[in-house]
Design brief:
The longest helix has 27 residues, at about 1-30. Strands 8, 9, 10, 11, 13, 14, 15, 16, 17, 20 and 21 form an 11-stranded antiparallel beta sheet that branches. This protein has an 8-stranded antiparallel beta sheet with strand order 3-4-5-6-7-12-19-18. It has 2 domains: about 1-65, no CATH class; about 75-265, no CATH class. The protein is built from 5 helices and 21 strands. The chain is of the alpha+beta class. Helix content is about 20%, strand content about 40%.
Amino acid sequence: MRLIYTWVIAVVLFMGLVSNAQSLSSLGSSKGEFSESVKDESFGQLRHLVLRDAVPVFEEDSGTFTVPDHPPLEVHKSDDSQFEYMAETPYYKVYFKGTTVRMSVGERWVQFEMKEGVGEVKNETPVLQENALSVPELWESVDLLYKVETSLLKETVVLREEKQFDRLVQTISWEGIKPEFEEDGSILFLDENGKEIVKILPPFMEDAAGKRCSDVHYEIVETEMGHELHKVMDEKGSEWLKQAVYPVVIDPSIETFEDAWTSSGLQPYGQ
């Protein structure tokens, strides 16, 4: 009985082999396109064709980037005694203390601390919620919110009622990177080799009716103590605020460049 079963398996395998050979033959006979394309492909290219849809890989040459497995994003107690809280994504770490926030990519980082805003500071006690940290009533009727996403750190200032001001000021410092202003109003941070590491995206405002205004810009001001980042309200922006439907959010976000990991030979956090 075992002998008969073995023969049946052998016949099935043989028939499958013949069928595949005929399929390849028919493809190859179509103007020789299949066989010629195989000859032109290098082993590395064929390997990529085989792997790209089979498993998550970091293939810089292919122009694709797959996010590695990682625990759910969550703000929790800091592993650095300089800060109170932190969060970790596959591509960056962020640390919080009061209104100070540091975003780290490997050994490089950029840090901000709120200095001047809309009136007198009322509260600096944070509230945690999963992947977000907020400081409600930082100034009267103004909240500060940070939201941690995979490759984006969103900072949002929420104006719950109309306020008159011309700028928000933060101290800013950095290590292992240097800032450059881009034509679109963003600030790009590059390492010593000119590699893009993080970018502060152009700021904008949005009201409760969904209307947006981009009449706000950045300035980096050198001081005796270091540098300040000014988010300056343009004249049109100030006029827009008078007509806006409140609450209004001011949203400057910080983006990481995922391919900075692969090109630098770094491993995503947690890998």
